[in-house]
Amino acid sequence: MTIAETIKVARQKKKMTHADLAVKIHVSPQLVGHWETAEREPSAGILLLLARELRFSLNKIEVLPKYRRKPEGVQNEN
C-alpha cells in the first residue's frame, strides 16, 4: 500500500476528518488532503507522527525513493 493509501485508510478507520487529524499533528487540513491524493509527500518526521497517531506500521507501506537508503559508495545521479 502507498503512503497516500495508508494515511487515508487509517484515518477513515479512526473516523477522523482531515481537520481532526490536522489538529493532532499541527498541520492544515488541506495538507492532509494533499498527502492522501499523493499530490505531496509528508516529511520523514511527519510520517512518524502520522504512524503514531493513526496506529499504522511504517514497515507495511511502500517506501518512496526519497526515503530509501543508498548502499554505501553509491553516488547521487546528477
Structure, described:
The protein is mostly helical and 78 residues long. The chain is built from four helices and no strands. The longest helix has 11 residues, at 3-13. It starts with a helix and ends in a 24-residue tail after the last helix. Helix 2 packs across helix 3.
Q: Give the total of beta strands.
A: 0
**Percent range for β-strand residues:** under 5%
How many angstroms does the end-to-end distance come to?
29 Å
Q: Order of SSEs, N→C?
A: HHHH
Low-confidence stretches: none
- Average predicted local confidence, pLDDT: 88
Write a brief structural summary.
The protein is an all-alpha fold. The chain has helices at about 5-15, 20-25, 30-35, 45-55.
List the helices and strands and how they pair.
Elements: H1 3-13, H2 18-25, H3 29-36, H4 44-54
Summary keywords:
78 residues; 0% strand
